[in-house]
Design goal:
Number of domains of chain B: 1
Helix content of chain B: under 10%
Largest sheet of chain B: 7 strands, mixed
CATH topology of chain B: Immunoglobulin-like
Number of domains of chain A: 1
CATH topology of chain A: Immunoglobulin-like
CATH superfamily of chain B: Immunoglobulins
Oligomer: heterodimer
CATH class of chain B: Mainly Beta
Strand content of chain A: over 45%
Largest interface: A-B, 26 and 27 residues
Chain lengths: ~120, ~120
Amino acid sequence: AQTVTQSQPEMSVQEAETVTLSCTYDTSESNYYLFWYKQPPSRQMILVIRQEAYKQQNATENRFSVNFQKAAKSFSLKISDSQLGDTAMYFCAFMKPGGEDSNYQLIWGAGTKLIIKP
Amino acid sequence: NAGVTQTPKFRVLKTGQSMTLLCAQDMNHEYMYWYRQDPGMGLRLIHYSVGEGTTAKGEVPDGYNVSRLKKQNFLLGLESAAPSQTSVYFCASSYPGLAGSSYNEQFFGPGTRLTVL
């Protein structure tokens, strides 16, 4: 079974600083997908970034980028030039690719509460 | 296009009462999911459906039932609520695209906060 671990329950940084959130996972699969979701106080789940395991290039979306280390089973999220609106819970999640035994279920980490201070 | 909606947004129940949470999506998605979110834990899958008329158990199905009579709706029922079911419930939907597609994005509703006293 797959597991996802986020070892930082809470982090806080000053506005405009760069912050890195950690995520490790365990799987015997060779191909899979990894995600970072943001959950602001509104509770809405928002997809931030996605990484496909068979792609060596790290995914980037504007100020958000990942450091994907497949051998180490590590998937960290870097937020550059942090903004007050980045304050939220951030969840790392794992998905097996589609196939006979896959329901596209997401396996979630426990989350990291990120606070951006003015 | 409303996406995924959930009804109600908040509810307080007494132990032993029953209720149904409604999830609706207008994106013609095949797959639908019910998750629960508890403090200090990630979301956990309760039940899911891969199409109209089908349902399957997820990671934590005990105490819940589901139905998918219409493609756009996925209902989550609590027959006899217990304090352990106090949680935030999320519905999600996705479209697997082509048969055997390796990836599909899940779209989430706004959640329902349920308190069982």
